[in-house]
Design goal:
This protein has helices at residues 3-7, 19-37, 41-56, 62-75, 81-100, 112-141, 145-175, and strands at residues 16-18, 109-111. The protein is mainly alpha-helical. A two-stranded antiparallel ribbon has the order 1-2.
């Protein structure tokens, strides 16, 4: 076989991230979240330990257990606006990574192009969740007068979403 034909045996795919790098991002993100948000060392270890379990054996759902440990550990500290915003970002990132790990093989590579929709969804959710978190934390820190207005606004939003959901459900049942 000549050397010319062997040169064409490669597939050019573009930029890719190795599987072990994606797997390692879960415990790294969990460690950052634990150090920033959890004041109790035992709960910090629980967050990182369950994230390591989720990295090594994604089918155990250890990543989501890590999120639960993070939430319990955060209850032991005093909340602030920055910690709530950081928690929303880091928990969402841990959730996304926990969802990706079962389908990413250790020896595989994931094209950056294939991760774009996931990153786009992460960004859109954060663009919605961060302002809502800020408003909720500001209402919580207020004297209480704003809480009544927030309750009414929340009830109106839930009613609106319920109506949209029912209309969408009715549209689907008419097509079937």
């Amino acid at each position: 076989m000549s050397g010319d034909t062997r040169r064409n045996d490669r597939i050019r795919t573009g930029a890719a991230i190795a599987g072990p790098v994606l797997h390692a991002l879960l415990p790294v993100t969990a460690a950052v979240a634990a150090l920033l948000l959890v004041p109790v060392p035992v709960w910090q270890l629980a967050v990182v330990g369950t994230a390591l379990l989720g990295m090594l054996f994604p089918q155990t759902l250890g990543g989501w257990l890590s999120i639960a440990c993070l939430a319990v550990g955060m209850l032991l500290g005093t909340p602030s606006i920055w910690s709530a915003s950081a928690a929303v970002l880091l928990v969402h990132l841990m959730h996304v990574l926990s969802s990706l790990l079962p389908v990413v093989p250790w020896r595989g590579r994931v094209l950056v192009r294939a991760l774009r929709p996931t990153l786009r969804r992460l960004l859109v959710v954060q663009l919605i969740a961060q302002p809502v978190t800020l408003v909720v934390m500001l209402v919580r820190l207020s004297d209480g007068a704003a809480v009544q207005g927030a309750v009414l606004a929340g009830a109106a939003a839930v009613t609106g979403f319920a109506c949209l959901f029912l209309l969408r459900l009715a549209g689907r049942s008419n097509r079937a």
